[in-house]
Amino acid sequence: MNKNLQTGITMGVSTFFIAILVVALSRLAVANLTAFLATVVFLLIITIGVLFDMIGVAAAAADVAPFNARAARKDFGARTGLQLVQNADRVATFCSDIVGDICGIVSGALGAMIVVRLAFAVDFSEAVLNITIVALAAALTVGGKGFCKGIGINRANEIIGFVGNLIALVQGFNPGKRKGGRSK
User: Fold this and answer.
1) Which of 61-65, 69-73, 124-128 has the lowest mean pLDDT?
2) How far apart are CA 134 and CA 115, in angstroms?
3) Residue-wise pLDDT tens digits, 94-143
4) What are the residues whose beta carbons fall under 8 Å from the beta carbon of 152, sequence distance 6 or more?
5) How many domains does the chain have?
6) CA distance 49 to 147
7) 63 close to 156: Cβ distance less than 8 angstroms
8) pLDDT value at residue 182
9) How far apart are the two ends of the chain, measured CA to CA in Å?
10) Does residue 152 contact residue 61 with C-beta atoms inside 8 Å?
């Protein structure tokens, strides 16, 4: 099987299950929240999508050389950052396409839930609320991604360095991993 086809199928199947999990969890979380807190979750999901898109762009734009140098010095998180840059196509697909797109879909679903809540709470047209929430989600997502893509390109090495450190830190809490993301 062609590597690109295999990657596409793997990403598609992964996205399906991740989307089910994220939508189910967000629906459960929002079902018991006030309209204000549901709106906070809505904005948080949009922000996560925008930030992951920036990470995906940064992975594609980052230079390998500084990460090779840092890894040779055994700097904390450098090997993880190097792996992110070396696998930029997968990182960009995961961050921008899977996480970013799922966040966009989930924010749309949450927006619809917020519209229903607000329509019952205030005496206002449900159609106008729906159009407003969808337009707000679109504007925040597209505007945020447009703003953050430039940052992702211009500060790629710094962003991937930070993400590499963060991943290595999280892996450090895993008893099966050593600092820097290497297995025992």
Assistant:
1) 124-128
2) 9
3) 898 888 888 888 888 888 888 877 877 777 788 888 888 888 988 999 99
4) 53, 54, 55, 56, 57, 58, 61, 159
5) 1
6) 13
7) yes
8) 47
9) 32
10) yes
Overall pTM > 0.90: no
74 is written with which tokens?
């055994």
Q: Where in the sequence is the domain holding 105, given as residue range(s)?
A: 3-181
3-state secondary structure 141-180: HHHHHHHHHHHHHHCHHHHHHHHHHHHHHHHHCCCCECHH
Distance, in Å, from the CA atom of 80 to the CA atom of 4, rounded to the nearest integer, reads 24
Q: Are 159 and 55 in contact (CB under 8 A)?
A: yes
Cα dist from 49 to 15, 33, 148, 158, whole Å: 14, 21, 11, 19
Give percent of the chain with pLDDT exceeding 70. Answer: 94
Neighbouring C-beta atoms of residue 22, cutoff 10 Å: 18
Q: What is the DSSP letter of 34?
A: -
User: What letter represents residue 174's amino acid?
Assistant: N
The token duo for 83 is 């792996």
DSSP state of 99: I
